[in-house]
Amino acid sequence: MSAAGFFEADGRRLSRGGIMLLMAPFFALILFAFLYPLLSLISISFLEPAPTLDNYQRVFENPVYARVLMRTLRIAVLVTLLSLALSFPVALAMAHARGPKAVFLAACVLLPFWSSVLVRTAAWAVLLQRNGLINQGLQAIGLTSEPLRLLYTQGAVVIAMTHVLMPFMVLPIYGALRNIPPDYGRAAAICGAGPLRAFWEVTLPIAMPGVIGGSILVFLTALGFFITPALLGSPQEMMIATLISQQMREILDWPFAAALVGVLTLFVTAVTLAFSRVFRFDRMMGGHT
């Protein structure tokens, strides 16, 4: 294909063949670094040594594993809702901020990306321990007479996961709110709408694509979270990623671990496809309708 063949007749837009050629390295990376290893691992769950579904039967018949799956789903929902409640005001402030204030807010949101998840989780472990800053503060103001058990609880996992995943909620919502023209607010005020009604009937519907996109990102990421639940949670509050690691590293039951991976992958794929049929991906990421 000649260089001119990459472009349409107007000389500006890439042809379909040119786009596919440019995307080929990306698709090759996805195929060999993600799909092939994932499918190879899942295939282990069916071969023990003959083809069987016993491993998947164990996942759904054993109440222990069923509770782990339901706990993972519950924590993912809680983290998504809490992230949404905390992120929307931040995104709204970023969308209306200008100058140094906008730079400061953006830096606060992006700053967590400069450190690893392990470092942020370790910081929460320090804050939540018996002699940590939070327990000391509660005792200093007289709310508690002795240290509370904050670490190695489900609450610690939810709080830390929310902190880690909040930027993935803030940025899509911010992108949607930035697309709202300032004239919309003035037009709503002229029509007699107060600030609350203007937010409910103008701002929120237009920002909904960003809300949906951020919620999907946070929810799907929370389903497979490993580091934070492993460090801050207890064995009684195990999530599915920790269970998979335990089956692989300690029990060495790779076929059953592969079955757990297959169940998680199937659920994530089903959620993604369900939302993609209702909302276009450009809408989910806060683009124009």
UniProtKB/TrEMBL annotation:
Q: Which UniProt keywords apply?
A: Cell membrane, Membrane, Transmembrane, Transmembrane helix, Transport
Q: Where are the transmembrane segments?
A: 21-47, 75-95, 102-127, 156-177, 206-233, 254-275
Every copy of the ABC transmembrane type-1 domain together lies at 69-275
Which Pfam family, just one, is annotated for this protein?
A: BPD_transp_1
- Gene3D superfamilies per UniProt: MetI-like (1.10.3720.10)
Keyword hit for Transmembrane helix: yes
Q: Does the keyword Chloroplast apply?
A: no
Instruction: Give the matching SUPFAM superfamilies.
Output: MetI-like (SSF161098)
**Annotated compartments:** Cell membrane
| Its membrane topology | Multi-pass membrane protein
Q: Which GO terms describe its cellular component?
A: plasma membrane
Which Gene Ontology BP annotations are present?
Answer: transmembrane transport
PANTHER family in alphabetical order = ABC TRANSPORTER PERMEASE PROTEIN, INNER MEMBRANE ABC TRANSPORTER PERMEASE PROTEIN YDCU-RELATED-RELATED
Q: Which family does it belong to?
A: Belongs to the binding-protein-dependent transport system permease family. CysTW subfamily.
The protein's name in its UniProt record: ABC transporter permease
**Organism from which the protein derives:** Nitratireductor aestuarii
